[in-house]
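ARCHIVE CARD
Drawer: 12
Card no.: 0347
Subject: one protein chain, sequence and derived structure
Cross-reference: see card 0346
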Amino acid sequence: MKANQERIEKHIKALSKFTATPGQGTTRMTYSAQDLQARNYIKEQMKEYGLQVREDGLGNIFGKLEGENKDAPSVIVGSHFDSVPNGGDYDGPAGVVAGLEVAALFQENQIKPTYPLEVIAMIEEEGSRFGGGLMGSRGIVGYLQKEEIAQIKDKNEVSVPDAMRMIDLDPSLEVKRDPETIKAFLEMHIEQGPILEEEQISVGVVESIVGLTQLDVTITGKAGHAGTTPMNRRSDALVAAANIISKLPQIAIEEGEGTVTTVGKHEVFPNGANVIPDKVVFSVDIRSSKEMHVKNVIKKVKDLIVSYETDDIQTTVEQPLYMQPKELNQEIRSILKASCERLDISFLTMHSGAGHDAMVLSDITDVGLIFVPSKDGLSHCPEEWTAIPDLANGVEVLYETALKLTEES
């Protein structure tokens, strides 16, 4: 059964309209007005395809097609629907649309599966509003406790429960799901890199996902007048932060084997042109395919930061996210490859250098992740783009795989 390309394109275009930055990419923060618009659209489509819709206590959306065995665990298909600031239309939504299209194909073919099929749209994978990332899937797995979630705030000091109330969600924070209710999770994502396009391959079957962590660093000094404070009397938080940040790339290079460090978030206080900064807050993203390298770099970065402490410069480091490198389920990888072969869709096996909800859910269930090509390898920017036929190829592979998983014992 061929995926409906017009339907896929309709969904992508509809979701792309729900942005706080029209004409400047997709900006859809979790629990924002744009989140609510996208949420309502996704739920409407789920209902149209015959799914029973619910939202958990964190705002993850589920649409369920009951199976012949109502007590059996579900095969879940989907991704996330939040974005980075000024991002693209495909990172996350492409996987949600894939789930919707799989459900539509089940409906059109009047398939009553043995095992239930669920479509999922998860929140806050990017961490753009509340930091850390992967919040929806971490909640489902149980890595975030209710008390912990209730204390999470955005940069404007708005807590998760308060933000949920602003769009009329029930902030019960009851989100952890019994692993016995999940048979498998399937996710389609744009590659966010150039390999598939350059090799002219339609699908990447992901074997493993990079290990990653995020450090939130605060450097505190003393404010002072830019003109009247001598250079040898300053406790400039920004100078200390700049010296630390400048040394991070070399730490990653020396660690080797593809290890990377990135400072992507940086705030200066009080942020006045003629005021010596008394506080700087920045993030450090660390990734590697081997856990030993992640741990080595964490230690080196922390040691570097501490080395800049003086009587007048203080430092703190928090670690809101840590995910081990993951190898994905071999049996599902085999089914995905067999589906590609049966459909005569070209594929290759890949490693993911980006984190995904799939890596979290792999801790409690069997997981399959596929990539489809990204034009010029671009992502997290307005130029992010994937051709509709490429999305359709990925959907067809997921559909074939979901058929098999919802029928086999």
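Annotation on reverse: The chain has a mean pLDDT of 97. The chain has two domains: 5-210+325-407, 211-323.
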